[in-house]
What does this fold into?
Amino acid sequence: MTDVVVSPIGFVSDHLEVIWDLDNEAKETAARLGLGFARAASPGVHPRFVSMVRELVEERLRDQPHTKLGTLPTWDVCPTNCCPPAKRPGAPE
It folds into this structure.
């Protein structure tokens, strides 16, 4: 038998999409295909996750003390034309 572990990497907490789509529909599909199924937990309000988010906010405020979060450009946003676009193989020059 083959097993599958699913991780909702796009979500930080359990909500309707995670619970319904994964815990119901994906689990049923796995069962129909003869696969064992497990879902990795989302971080939700786990103390280590909450602490990490708090540390990131404090870091932002420390590095830019006169800014409000989310209102001004920050160090983690590339300015326009900062990075050249990736060239796809076979794409015209």
Summary: The chain has two helices and two strands.
